[in-house]
Amino acid sequence: MVKKKKRQPKQLKLLKTKQQRAPKQHKAKVKQKSKKQQKTKNSQKLLTEVLRQHKSLLTVLVLLLILATGLWAGYQYVIREYAVTRIYVDGNLHYTDEEIMDMVMEGRFGKNSIYLSLKYKDKSISGIPFIEKMDVSIMEKDTIRINVYEKAIAGYVEYMGHYLYFDKDGIVVEASAQAAAGVLEVAGLEFDHAVMHEKLPAKDESIFTRTLSISQLMQKYGIAADKVYFDENGEIMLYFGKIKVALGNDYHIDEKMMELQNILPELEGLSGTLRMENFDDFSDETIFESEM
Question: Where do runs of H (alpha helix) occur along 82-172?
C-alpha cells in the first residue's frame, strides 16, 4: 500500500501570499503619501518666501517713491522760493551791471540764492580782467549784493599791437588786444620792454602817479579825454577829439580841470588848442587857438 503525500490547500497558500505582500503595499502607500506631503510643504514654504520677498520689494519701492516725491517737492520749493529777483552791483566801472551779473550768476542754478551762498561762501571771484576781486553776499532769499573791487588802473600805453594797463606805480596789471573805455591813454612814455606784473622801465617814473591824478580829476569833474601826452619837459596836453588842451605843469591842476569842464561845451564842433598854462588863482587867462 502506497501512502499518498498530502497537498497543502491552495486557498491557504494564496492567503499566505496575500498576507505576506500586504505590508509592502502599505509601506509604499505611506511613502507616496509622505512624499506628497513634503512636496506640499515645500511648495507652501516657497510660496511664503516669494510672497515675503515681494512684500519687501514692494515696501522698498513704496519708500523710494515717497522719498523721490519728497525730494522733488523740496527741489521745487527751493527753486521757487529762493529765486533771485533783486541784485545790487557796486564798484564797477569797466563792466556794466549786466556783465557783472552774467559773470557771477552763471550756470543752471546761477539765479538761486542758496546755490550762490554755497558757491561763494568765504570765496571771492578773481581772474577777471581789470577786476581785483568780487564778493557776493546774500541779503535776503531773493536778494543779493555784488561788490566789485577793480584794479587801480592809472592809464594804458599801446605797445607792440597790445594795450598795457598800469597802476599808480607803473606796474603792468593787465594786457588786452582792445582798448578799454574809460581808461586814459598815455603818450610820451618811453620804454624799451614790458613784462606783466612788473614796472614799466620808463625814464620819468613820476608820469605814473601824475596820470592817476589826472584820471581821478577827470572822474571828479565828469571829463572824458581821449589821451594825455607828456612832453620832454613833463608838461601836459589833453586830447578831446579835435580839441587839444595845454595844461602846462601840475601847478593848480585841480583848478584848471574844474574850469575846463565849463569851457569844453563851448568848444564843441571846433578844432584847435586851448591854452591854460597860465591859469591860476590870480589869472583866469585861457586862449583858444583855432585851426581852420
Answer: 97-104, 113-119
Q: What is the pLDDT of residue 19?
A: 47
CA-closest candidate to residue 245, choices 288, 210, 182, 280: 288
Which set of grid coordinates corresponds to residue 157?
A: 600805453
Tell me the pairing of strands 143-150 and 185-187: unpaired
Bridge partners, residue 136, by sequence = 146
Q: Alpha carbon of 43 to those of 33, 34, 50: distances in Å?
A: 15, 14, 10
Residues 113 and 144 in one domain: yes
Q: Model's pTM, two decimal places?
A: 0.58
Tens-place pLDDT, residues 236-253? 999 999 999 999 988 889
* Mean pLDDT across the chain: 81
What total number of domains does the chain contain? 3
Q: Can you give the residue range of the structural domain that contains 50?
A: 38-79
Check: CB of residue 130 under 8 Å from CB of residue 151.
yes
